[in-house]
Amino acid sequence: MNFVKALAESPDLNSVPSIYNYSTNSNEPLASDPQESIPTINFSLLNSTDADLRSKEIQELDKACKEWGFFQVINHGVPEALMKMVIEKSYEFFNMTDEEKKDFEEKDVLDPIRYGTSFNFKKDIVLYWRDFLKVIVHPEFNCPNKPLGFSEVLFEYSQRTREVARGLLNGISLSLGLDQSYAEKALEFESGLQIFVVNLYPPCPQPELAIGMPPHSDHGLFTLLINNGVAGLQIKHKGKWVNVNKTLPNSFLVNTADQLEIFSNGKYRSVEHRAVVNNAVTRISVVVANGPALDTVVRPAYKLVDEETSPVAYVPMKYKEYLEMQQGNQIVGKKCLQRIQV
What we know:
GO molecular function, one term: metal ion binding
Family: Belongs to the iron/ascorbate-dependent oxidoreductase family.
CATH superfamily: B-lactam Antibiotic, Isopenicillin N Synthase, Chain
Structural class: alpha+beta
Strand content: 15-25%
Number of helices: 10
Domain Fe2OG dioxygenase: 191-292
CATH topology: Jelly Rolls
Protein name: Non-heme dioxygenase N-terminal domain-containing protein
Oligomer: single chain
Shape: globular
Number of strands: 14
Distance between the termini: 38 Å
Organism: Artemisia annua
């Protein structure tokens, strides 16, 4: 397995090897600055004792999920120092020697710890300018045994972000017109899958020819993201690619994912996004993907189904089977989700 970090650090690298040449669809509208601001959700108001403030924020969450599938979350309670430390420790992991990291190289999509490159190295026709570390942190906590202190930081971070995820899921349940705990129970969130992912995008000599990650949607319910301050994330909004450049301090970026689209019967769509690279600095994104329990059969909530106005739009499927289907193949937009549409 040839990792991008080592390739990027080669002193004689002046061009992108042909295996990384990614040709985008020339008919797609180019990325542009948004004409409107990315929505912001005040997490503290989702649990406010003031019924009016809470109701208003639930409406804002509903609007963000319907119109964007993407939003910033502020006042979430996760310490800024912890968010910075998890980025720092993640960077330390990638700076270890190849021999130290070799123990964690991926073999299977459900390995508790996976260190790899591209997306699916064995099946990707074109490789992506990205190395990654993926760690399953719930329902059982896992972590590489190095660098020093990584496990303690990751354990606290995974617990804290899990509570943010739970709060968002309860808010989404209400915004869909369901009981607050309906989604949490139906999707068995208490034993749900939580994956910690670090993406490393080193400088690329020809960033216009390569891509960090191609257009795709995530497989879970929703994803929480932070980064090291380097731009590179783009989301698709109203058919155009939008650069996510400016974010509020100490905020999470959240995108809706495929299982939420299925559960909401299409009311909330999972958002397509991609990662572009640059030729100057390394970008690190730290992602926490939150999903149902692996053995949960995910289906549209029965209260959101009406035979005449809103018939069932997706075939019920075990989350584990969906995850393996998406992660075990090439990643192409929302093709995986389209396969189970009725």
